[in-house]
Design goal:
alpha+beta, Double Stranded RNA Binding Domain, 6 helices, 7-stranded antiparallel beta sheet, 23% strand, 302 residues, 2 domains, 6-stranded antiparallel beta sheet, elongated, SMI1/KNR4-like
C-alpha cells in the first residue's frame, strides 16, 4: 500500500517527533493554500527530520531557519515569471506554482505542483542544477516509494541496497569525536566489538576507498538514538551524536567499548576538532547542533 500506511510500516516513526504540532489554520492562512492531508499526517507522525540521511522533511512549525514550508528555498537567478526555459513552472503563490515541502542533502527542492485541489497535488523534484522531474503522487506516497527503492528518478540518489530505511528527528545533539590508538585487533573485529557493546544497533551505510582499507561505518543505536561513525581511515576514531541528557551514559558505555576493542582514547574533541580537557556534563554544555541537527559526515558520498 502506497502512502501513510505503507510508509509507517516501512520506516519507524520517532517516539517524540520534533516541530510536529501547531496551528494548521494559521500555517495555511500564511501560505494562502490548504495543505494535503497526507502531508499533515507526515508532519504529525515524523516531524522535522530526515529520511535515510538524505531526504529532509520540513514542517510549518518551530522556529528554526532551516525548517518551514515556503514558496522556494535558496537563491534564484533570473525571473521565474519570464524565464520559462530555466523555470518551466511558476512559483507559489502564483496559480499552479511550486511550493517547497522538503529538500535533500544535495540541495534539491521537493515541491508540490499546486494545480487543482491539494489532495491531487503532484510532487516535483527541482534539482540544485535547475532540472525538474514530476511524479504523479503525493508527498507521503513519494517518500514511501523512494525509501522502498521504487522511485525511478534521474535526479535523486538511490537508497543503498540491503539497508532498512530509517528516520532521524532533527533534535539537539552533542557531537563528539574520540581519537583512538590502533590496538592489536583488526578493524572488522574492533567494529564488531563496538557494535556489540552498544547493541542493539542498526546499519546506516558503509563507505570504503577503492584503493585501500580506509573508510567509514555508519550505524545507530536503536533504543537510545545515538548516531555513530567508526573511521577505519586515519585518524582512527569514533564520532558520535547524542541527545544532551545522555552525556554520562554515552561516556560510560563508549569508554567501556573502547576498552573491549583493545584501544585507548588519545583525545576527545568537538566535531570541529577542538580538543576538550575533559569529557563530562560540564564540557557538554556546549552543544553542537550542526546546520540542521544532523550528524557530521566527512566524505563526499554522504
Amino acid at each position: 500500500m502506497t502512502g501513510p500506511a505503507g510508509l509507517a510500516r516501512l520506516v519507524t516513526p520517532p517516539t517524540a517527533p520534533i516541530d510536529a504540532h501547531g496551528d494548521w489554520t494559521a500555517a495555511e492562512t500564511a501560505l494562502g493554500a490548504r495543505l494535503p492531508d497526507d502531508y499533515k499526517w507526515l508532519v504529525g507522525t515524523y516531524g522535522w527530520g530526515e529520511f535515510c540521511d538524505f531526504l529532509y522533511l520540513r514542517t510549518p512549525f518551530g522556529t528554526s531557519e532551516y525548517n518551514g514550508v515556503q514558496w522556494q528555498s535558496g537563491h534564484l537567478t533570473g525571473s521565474p515569471a519570464r524565464d520559462r526555459e530555466r523555470y518551466p513552472y511558476p512559483l507559489h503563490p502564483a496559480p499552479g506554482g511550486l511550493l517547497v515541502w522538503g529538500t535533500t542533502m544535495d540541495a534539491d527542492r521537493l515541491c508540490w505542483l499546486t494545480d487543482g485541489p491539494s489532495e491531487a497535488w503532484h510532487v516535483v523534484v527541482w534539482s540544485s542544477e535547475g532540472r525538474y522531474e514530476t511524479h504523479p503522487i503525493g508527498a507521503a506516497g513519494f517518500i514511501e516509494r523512494w525509501a522502498g527503492g521504487h522511485v525511478s528518478s534521474r535526479l535523486l540518489a538511490d537508497m543503498e541496497p540491503d539497508l532498512a530505511p530509517w528516520f532521524n528527528a532533527f533534535r539537539p545533539r552533542i557531537h563528539r569525536c574520540l581519537r583512538l590508538s590502533e590496538g592489536l585487533l583488526s578493524h572488522p573485529e574492533r567494529l564488531r566489538l563496538l557494535r556489540e557493546a552498544l547493541a542493539p544497533t542498526t546499519d546506516r551505510g558503509t563507505w570504503r576507498s577503492e584503493h585501500d582499507e580506509m573508510g567509514q561505518d555508519h550505524f545507530a543505536t536503536i533504543d537510545t538514538d545515538w548516531l555513530l561513525t567508526y573511521d577505519a581511515s586515519r585518524p582512527h576514531q569514533i564520532r558520535i551524536g547524542y541527545p544532551p541528557e545522555d552525556t554520562e551514559q554515552v561516556r560510560l558505555r563508549l569508554l567501556a567499548a573502547v576498552h573491549l576493542m583493545g584501544c585507548h582514547v588519545l583525545q576527545v574533541t568537538t566535531a570541529t576538532g577542538t580538543p576538550l580537557p575533559t569529557w563530562d556534563a560540564a564540557t557538554d554544555d556546549e552543544q553542537e547542533f550542526g546546520a540542521a541537527g544532523t550528524p557530521h559526515r566527512e566524505h563526499s558520498a554522504g
